[in-house]
Structure formats: structure tokens, C-alpha cells
Amino acid sequence: TEDTKCMCKEFKEQIADPNFEGFCHCMLYYKSLKD
User: Fold this and answer.
1) Which of 7, 18, 21, 22 has the lowest CB atom count within 10 Å?
2) What is the pTM of this model?
3) Mean pLDDT computed over 20-28
């Protein structure tokens, strides 16, 4: 399922937030406001 991928479900929700910038909770991905 999607949840077994390392791209955290929580981070997908953060990506959907245009004001979020930072690492996901597993520290593998970083979202920049420039993206």
C-alpha cells in the first residue's frame, strides 16, 4: 500500500499545505517553499 513507502503519509499532508516548509518526521524528505 501507499503507507509502506517511505514517503510518509504525514508528509504528503504537509506537502499539500502551501505554507509548510521543513523535514518530514522521518527526516528523509525536505519540502522547500520554493518547490
Assistant:
1) 18
2) 0.54
3) 86
